[in-house]
Amino acid sequence: MRAKILVLILVLIADVSSALGVVYARHESRRLAIELGTLEARQDEGLAEWSRLQIEQAWLADASQIEKKARRILQMQQPERTKVLVLSP
Amino acid sequence: MLLIFLGCSIALVARAVKLQVMEVDFLLGQGEARYLREVTIPSTRGVISDRNGEPLAVSTPVDSVWVNPGQLLDYPEKIKSLSGLLNANAEEIERKLTQRAAREFVWLQRRLNPDVAEQISALGIPGVYLQKEYRRFYPAGEVTSHVIGFTNIDDIGQEGLELAYDSWLAGKPGLKRVIKDRKGQTVEELGLVKQSHPGQDLSLTIDKRLQYLAYRELKSTVLQHGARSGSVIVMDVNTGEVLAMVNQPSYNPNDPGHDSDGMRNRAVTDVVEPGSVMKPIAITSVLENGLADPATPVETTPGYIVVSGHTIRDHNDYGLLDVTGVLTKSSNVGVTKLALQLEPEQMWDTYRRFGFGEATGTGFPGESAGVLRNHSRWRRLEQATIAYGYGVSATPLQLAQAYAAIANGGNLRQPAFIQGSDNPPISAFDPAIAHTLATMLETVTSDAGTGKAARVPNYRIAGKTGTSRKASASGYAARYVASFAGFGPVSDPRLVCVVVINDPTGDEYYGGLVAAPLFSKVMTGAMRILNIPPDNYPTMLVENSDPERVQR
Description:
The complex is a heterodimer. Chain A is mostly helical. Chain A has two helices and no strands. Chain A has one domain (8-74). Chain B has two domains: 39-203, Penicillin-binding protein 2a (Domain 2); 208-253 and 265-540, Beta-lactamase (3-Layer(aba) Sandwich). The interface between A and B is large, with 34 and 39 residues.
């Protein structure tokens, strides 16, 4: 009789702890799924931002724009041939 | 203690009974409201960049708006506010949706401006959804459009390298299984069905700076001479890497439209009869078959020769030349006399080894192989004309490949556009002949030559001019192709450049007057950008320096 009660107690302990475990695991998985979603969204955002910045940088560094600014605004000129000094490597 | 556990387990059992028996209707309803769905995970297309990592094609996410007509048509007043944002006619949208009322998915407008997308999403109209898509941007625009090409609205390559390397650049979208609620929001992710793979990046051999320089100079030359079209190619002699390839007319790859004329990558797809730029190939054949050496005299008086009843003329009577002089003066008579000493098969064989009559195999869509008929079908007149570049046709890229072989000691390399391409050098002809030929071609830019305008200050340049009449239905018309092909610095060749200007309409149409100056401008800039030392820099150092500076 005592042995049976002991077994019953053990089974009950196992039952309750597994129930609590399920609740906890379920909660944890939801939390992690949400976190993953947020992180993925942040990664996407980061990549999108990176691609936009790359394009923006390329627009700003466009050779024709730079040339226009150098020649018209900064009044830069290509040096004459006699003013070029070639340094040996 | 026991009681506590007993209480807990009774509670568990009671909960189970409640869920399974008493609330079954409610839960079934819940289950139906949630859907097990498989959704795609979008993947980005790889970035195309130049040899220095400058981006030339980048994808960035934009929103497209789609609607479920069944849902939206219940709110006609909302269509008005939507059409206002989209700058579209409300009645037209309504008609379009009514026609497609049975469907659940209709694109309304794709690739919206980000601020418009935000406003639409703020309206929160039922049945209107935003979908993230990728849009391709080409920061260098028309300067690189022929090399890179463009993608269509579904992000599939349509032209150029975007088409040739579509499967490499395109990612593989993934698939995941999720539970969605009635509003289409993801409640839970169940797992990955297929991993998404982002597209791979493509690193080109093109140098954006040279590409821009060549494009700018080509555009102004084409404009100045009222030419129909033109191409410039700059290639690295030692590696076969193409550093710049530009064409006119061009187009804006960010908004390609349907102008198919501007879309052709003429440097690769269009063949021309090259005219005199072919003469060095014929001379190579003469030299390697031991029929002459550079100093062998060639009589070109009286300035014409009759072959099979057809008269071949020079511009002037050049008198007694040597083989070098035939190239310097570009004498048709001289090269005809020399070439006719060859067996057709010998000459054909040389041309083949230079890569003529065979596509270079770069994988560019629509690449042409040019035309070089088999020697068994050559008649005597044809052999003569092929020697000075008629009756044979080639793309500008083939010419660049051939001249690079001359510059690179007889080693032919397939032109490469992608870094790390496998294009081993193939020995096409004797290095000694290549060297001799380079020396002979240098005389073309001397005071006596036809290509003086191709000179590059401080650098020794070898090359050949070409002017050919265009073939038309009624024989050869008074329309021309002006060309120049050459390389430098001659003491250690680094760059080869080919210029082809099609149909210049001004008074000037000779290769030496139209194409050679453009060659000079492109090469001058390229030498400076790539920091290529001049042929004789120790002497130049003294010549160019300011005396005061040297003393200091």
